[in-house]
Specification:
The chain is of the alpha/beta class and about 200 residues long. It is built from five helices and eight strands; from the N terminus they run βββαββαααβαββ. About 25% of the residues lie in helices and about 25% in strands.
């Protein structure tokens, strides 16, 4: 499978954020997006996830037999955690598992809780989690349903050293299994990325 970006232009609020951005990412490869705030890293992830339309250019998938949209093949974890604070940790995972069409919700929840050792917090209200715990819960969605493309926006923010190592292991395992990874960061993630784009250069 290959993800192909062909001459992508991005506008936000009437301002051209970046233009003529092209890249190809194949199975087992990772793309690291770097650059200053406002350079378009988050905007690019949102465009790939289908949460907006590029001002120009196209995204496409090569090597797949079905017609699923790229967003339906992707896990997008933004810098905001998107948690329902009135629900427990387990109830949040159940909501996302059902939303994403998990065939076995219980098994997905078990994998999600295990990814960052959240089992002991399963019944805990998400509204009472620390910043690091909330981030771990948001990232646990990656284990609920298998999707080949991971789009991660500053995934390590708020995580302690042990959780950063668990995240790096999960990202490396995803690529080892042939998955595609695109991530933004201002710090090291402990992952050997295949390609890097510095968005500060205007792509």
């Amino acid at each position: 499978m290959r993800l192909i970006a062909d001459k992508i232009d991005c506008e936000r609020g009437g301002r051209r954020v970046f233009s003529d951005l092209s890249f190809t990412l194949g199975s087992g490869e990772g793309l690291l997006l770097t650059g200053a705030n406002g350079s378009g890293k988050t905007s690019l992830l949102r465009l790939i996830a289908g949460l907006g339309d590029p001002a120009g250019g196209t995204f496409s998938i090569d090597g797949m037999d079905d017609d699923l949209a790229i967003g339906q093949r992707s896990h997008y974890v933004a810098h905001r955690n998107a948690l329902k604070t009135a629900l427990s940790v387990e109830e949040n995972l159940a909501f996302w598992a059902k939303f994403m069409g998990a065939s076995d919700v219980a098994a997905g929840i078990e994998r999600g809780l295990g990814l960052f050792n959240l089992d002991h917090l399963a019944s805990y209200s998400a509204g009472l989690l620390s910043q690091g715990q909330a981030r771990r819960l948001a990232l646990s969605r990656l284990e609920l349903v298998a999707r080949p493309i991971w789009l991660l926006d500053e995934p390590s923010v708020g995580l302690d050293e042990a959780s950063c190592k668990q995240l790096a292991a999960a990202m490396n395992s995803h690529m080892d299994k042939g998955g595609l990874l695109i991530a933004t960061t201002h710090t090291g993630l402990g992952v050997s990325f295949t390609k890097t784009i510095d968005m500060s250069e205007g792509a």
